[in-house]
Amino acid sequence: MTAPGGEAPRQPANWRSLFARSATAVFVVGPNRRLRYANPAWEVAVGHAFPKLRGMRLSRYRSGSDLGRTLMPPPEALAGKPTNVRRAAPGESAGPPWWDFTFVPLAGPKPDSILGIVGTLTVVGERLPKKSGGKLDPVSAEVRRELAAHHSFERIAGTTTAGERFLDRVRLAAAVRTPVKLFGEAGSGKGATARIIHHNGPSAAKPFAAVDCAGVQPYLNEAQLFGKGGVLSSLGTLYLADPGALPRDLQEKIVQALQRPTAPRLIWGTHLATDPRLLTAFEDRFAVLELSVPPLRERLEDLPWFVERILPAGRIVADDALAVLAAHRWPGNLRELAVTLGTAAAEHDGPIHAAHLPRVLRERLLIQQHPIARPETPLPLNFVLAQVERRMIEAALTAQDGSQTAAARQLGLSRAALGRRIESLGLTIREVPR
Amino acid sequence: MKAPSIIAYSTDSAVADHLRDLAAVHRWRLQEVKTPAGLRTALAMPRPIVVLWEIDAVSSDAAADAALADIHRSFPDVPIVVVSPSKLSDDDRPAWSAARLNLGARHILFPPWTKLVLEDLAGGLLAASIRRITGKDPPPPMPRGDAAIDLAEGVYDDED
Questions:
Q1: What ipTM score was computed for the predicted complex, to two decimals?
Q2: pLDDT digits (tens, 9 = 90+) for B13-38
Q3: Which residues, 6+ apart, have CB-to-CB distance to A366 below 8 Å?
Q4: Which of A5, A111, A142, B3 has the highest CB neighbour count under 10 A?
Q5: Interface probe with B: pick from A136, A226, A306, A341, most Cβ of B within 10 Å
Q6: If we measure between CA atoms, which residue out of A36, A117, A27 comes closest to residue A80?
Q7: What residue in A sits closest to B47 (Cα-Cα)?
Q8: pLDDT digits (tens, 9 = 90+) for B121-133
Q9: Which domains does chain B have, with CATH numbers?
C-alpha cells in the first residue's frame, strides 16, 4: 500500500536499534518497576544477558536480588524527577567499583503519572585485591577520659538565664536515650551540643560519630555507615548534620537501620524548622525530643564567657575590644566569633584590642555610640490649620452667596469673629451681585 | 576571606599528589605538613580548611590518637579525614574507624584511596566549610587544561 502521494509510509523510528548501537549502557524500567529493556552495552557493564533478566522486579527490599536493589530507581526518580545516583556495584558493599546512574522518568498522559524510567549506567573504578590487616591498638583510656572531660556540661553553661535554661534542656536530653533534633541557626553550636549530650549520656561508653550530610558525597557516607567494615553498629551515638541533604533512599536506609535494638542513638541537627527534603518517616521517628540551640545574639551577656573559652590559653580580650564584640549581631553565631577571635589572635600578639578586630565591627560600635541625628523637620501645623480654615470660610461664603452674616452662622462664629479671620487670612471677598 | 586550604599531614606526598589538580582548579592552597606542631601552625589562621591526616591503622599508637583528639578539641570546626595506608580486616575495621571518629575524625579512608575518592572527600568537605564560614557557595572551578586563559583577579585575600 502506498500513501496518497505515492510514497511508502514512513516507519516509526526504531529506538531499540538506536540504543542497540550505543556504547552507553541503557535500560528501561516499567511503571511496575520491572526491567523492560537493556541494550548490549548494559549487558557488558552488568555482566548478565538481558533475556534472562527481562521482567525482573527491581526492589530495594532485602528479599530482592542484589542486582535488583542496585538497579532500583531512587524515590526521586519514581516521583518524576530526573536523578543521578552513585551506588556500589552488586556484591561490593563499599566500592570500588561504583555504578553511576542517571534515571530519567518519562511523564505519562495523566498528571503525576510516569510511563517508565530510562536509566543509563557508567561503571566507575575497578575492584582491587583484598589485603588483610594486623593487630589493633586500642585508644588509650586516658585519651578517652580527656575527651569526655572536655565535653562537659560546663562548655555550654554560661552565666545568664537563657544559658541556664538551655543547659537544663541539654541535661534532660543527656539523661534519656531518645533521638534528639537540634534546631538552630548555622554556627550556633549544634555539633558541639550533640557531643556534650553523647559524652554525658547513656551511650558514652561507645564512640560518637558526626556525619556531614551536605559536605560528603552520599556514596561515601553510605559506605562509611553501611559498607563492608561500616561503623554504624559500633557507635553509641550517630550525629547527622543536615540529614535533609541525604538522598531519600539513604534516609530510608537510616530509618530502617536505626530501628534495630542495638542501633546507636541518633542526634540530628538542622537550621530549618521543617525540612521538606526529609522523609516524613524520618521526622516522625527522630524528632522525639527537640532542642532549640539559641543564637549568639540572644546570649550576648555571656559573650565574655564565650570569649574566654574560644581564645587560646594565655590570650585575653581588652575591654575596648569586648565593647566592639558586644555591639555586633553575630549572624554567623559562635563560628563567626571563633573566626574573628582566631584571626585577631593569629595576626597580633598580646591582648586583643579593638584595633585588631575587623573594621566593619568597629564601625558598628561607632554607629551605636554616635547615632546619626536626624535633621529636625518643622511640623507645619499652623500652616495646615490656616489652609483648612481658609477652605472652610471660602466654602461657607460661596454656599451663602457671599453673605458674611450667613457664613458666620454656618461656621458657628459671630459676624465679627469671621471678619477678623477673613482679615488675618487675607481673604478677598467676592462681591455678590444682588 | 583567606584562601581555603587543603592540608595533607603525611610522611610522604602520596596524598597531596592526588589533590594537586583539585587545589589548582579551585585556587585552593595545598599545604603539606609533617609534624603535629606544623599542623597546629597551619591551622592557627582561621580559614576554610580540610585536613587529610595519614594514620596507619596497623601501626597507629597512643601518640597519634592523642594528637588527633587534641587537634579536634582546639579546632572543632575543621573537618579531618583520616587516611590509612594499610588495610584492616573487615572484622577489625569498624571498631578502629569508630574510635577515630570518636576522637574527632569526620571520615576514615582505607585503601584503595583513589584520586577520585580523595577529590570527592576533600572537595566536598572544603566546599561545605566555605559555605559555613562565608554563607556563600565557593567560586566555580577554573577549566582544567591549557584551553583557558586565566585573566581573573585573585579571589582570596592571601592568594598566591
A1: 0.90
A2: 889 999 999 999 999 999 999 998 99
A3: none
A4: B3
A5: A136
A6: A117
A7: A339
A8: 999 999 999 998 8
A9: 5-134 (3.40.50.2300)
